[in-house]
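S2.1 Query sequence (PIG-L family deacetylase)
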Amino acid sequence: MTEPTITQLEPMPGDWRRALAVVAHPDDLEYGCSAAIAAWTDEGREVAYVLATRGEAGIDTLSPAECGALREREQRASAAVVGVSEVEFLDHRDGVVEYGIALRRDIAAAIRRHRPELVITLNHRDTWGGVAWNTPDHRAVGRATLDAAADAGNRWIFPELTEQGLEPWDGVRWVAVAGSTTPTHAVDASPGLERAVRSLLEHRTYIEALTDEDPETYVRGFLTGYARATGERFGGRPAVAFELLGR
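Output structure tokens follow.
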């Protein structure tokens, strides 16, 4: 059954203080989400990043050891541009992340550490709008994040986390899925769009391996085009869209 398209997107809730973004790879958040994060940190909200991998399998011309260290540096620099200082890596293997108990436990532990009200993740569905197959890592991490948001609040799931001093956290109120083809809400991208461009440009080594186009031309065209298209459903303002799931 095809899900109905929501014509106009609602503003994201504003009554929260802490968010945790959980994705598979360096650059996942920068492809369309970081303008919202810049706006939130400007407002004094706390945002932290958790990445399942270091993206070490992402550049064919670099060995995983060299690539992982480089992409970690790029990710930390990228996060700093939009006001995020806490960046954690779970050290699952890039390209072969498996949905399962180990991944759910690691993400639940991160949620207990950071105690967010809002959790952000990336499209967990099989495709990008039915036209391109999504990667196994995105699907696994997105699904595990949705499940871990509930796991984190149940002391009888992963009781070993409590033994490690990580008390249950049942304060996650929403999970926001970026890159969804069925978005429900949006954030005005105008205040953070230039920083979003600079943030994605910090992944320069990866971008240069991805395209022959000038990196800034590529990044600016991608992000502004996405923001403008989303804005057509958000009062004409450039925007970042999310599918907001309540708990």
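The mean pLDDT is 96. The CA atoms of residues 35 and 59 lie 25 Å apart.
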